[in-house]
């Protein structure tokens, strides 16, 4: 077992090597633009950091939104991309928007597709979609409900949290089955789907509590393994990671309300 674990650790490292091979033609000029929050871009940041790819993490300040200046920035496609929304990725002369599309692009650019089948690639895309369309959207809805209705009673906040919990109880067993006893979802190194699921479950823990994964040992081990990857651990320890999920000015107070209500 010790030998198997040692081999597994060695095999868990090739993400950086794959990226270097994929980028062997030269260092590209990369900018990832998103708001100063984790939101729908953090999984992308993790993938780039893990691969040791140099990029500009261009964050649009919340002040631009509060002041209304975001609407001026949004009208500029060089900032908001082809769809007028963030995140946007600039890779040399190529610009692409939308989280899922950026993730699919980086899946190939960072060498994640190496050694995987078309079906594996589709599964990585499905994991990215699950992370953002199901888990993150659902968790951020709780923040939005509590944040936009400051007079909500404790019971109503508890109901919003419970609704999120019920929906997560439908998703987590499926993710547990998919990861099984493997180190990562698809191969011996993380791909885009892994980075996005890691971020989504991390955001879920912020909303529902650290014990949300207690019944899922495979997912708990996966989360620990991802957090302990050297480049990700270094990135988190550096304080570079955005502090908040949404960047809303009252997020700390909203989270305090959510975390203080008794679970139904």
Automatic annotation (TrEMBL):
List each copy of the GST C-terminal domain by range: 117-264
The protein's name: Glutathione transferase
Q: What InterPro entries does the record tag this protein with?
A: Glutathione-S-Trfase_C-like, Glutathione-S-Trfase_C_sf, Glutathione_S-Trfase, Glutathione_S-Trfase_N, GST_C, GST_superfamily, Thioredoxin-like_sf
Which Gene3D superfamilies has this protein been placed in?
1.20.1050.130
PROSITE patterns listed in its UniProt record: GST_CTER (PS50405), GST_NTER (PS50404)
Which GO terms of the molecular function aspect are on file? glutathione transferase activity
What's a Pfam family this protein contains?
GST_C_3
- The residue ranges of the GST N-terminal domain are 28-114
SUPFAM superfamilies recorded:
GST C-terminal domain-like, Thioredoxin-like
Report the CDD domains cross-referenced here. Answer: GST_N_Sigma_like
Q: Name one GO biological process term.
A: glutathione metabolic process
Q: Which PANTHER family match?
A: GLUTATHIONE S-TRANSFERASE
């Amino acid at each position: 077992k010790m030998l198997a674990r040692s081999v597994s650790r060695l095999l868990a490292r090739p993400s950086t090597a794959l990226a270097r091979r994929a980028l062997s033609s030269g260092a590209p000029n990369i900018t990832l633009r998103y708001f100063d929050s984790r939101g729908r871009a953090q999984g992308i940041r993790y993938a780039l950091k893990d691969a040791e790819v140099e990029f500009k993490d261009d964050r649009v300040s919340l002040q631009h939104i509060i002041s209304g200046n975001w609407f001026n920035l949004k009208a500029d496609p060089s900032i908001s991309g082809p769809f007028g929304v963030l995140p946007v990725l600039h890779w040399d002369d190529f610009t692409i928007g939308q989280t899922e599309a950026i993730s699919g692009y980086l899946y190939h650019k960072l060498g994640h597709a190496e050694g995987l089948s078309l079906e594996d690639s589709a599964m990585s895309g499905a994991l990215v979609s699950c992370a953002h369309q199901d888990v993150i959207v659902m968790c951020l809805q709780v923040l939005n409900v509590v944040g936009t209705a400051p007079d909500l009673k404790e019971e109503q906040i508890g109901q919003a949290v419970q609704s999120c919990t019920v929906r997560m109880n439908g998703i987590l067993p499926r993710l547990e089955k998919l990861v099984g006893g493997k180190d990562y979802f698809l191969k011996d190194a993380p791909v885009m789907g892994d980075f996005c699921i890691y971020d989504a479950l991390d955001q879920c823990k912020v909303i529902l509590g650290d014990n949300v994964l207690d019944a899922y040992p495979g997912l708990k081990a996966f989360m620990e393994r991802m957090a302990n990857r050297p480049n990700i651990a270094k990135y988190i320890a550096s304080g570079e990671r955005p502090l908040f999920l949404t960047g809303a000015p009252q997020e700390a107070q909203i989270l305090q309300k959510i975390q203080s209500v008794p679970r139904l």
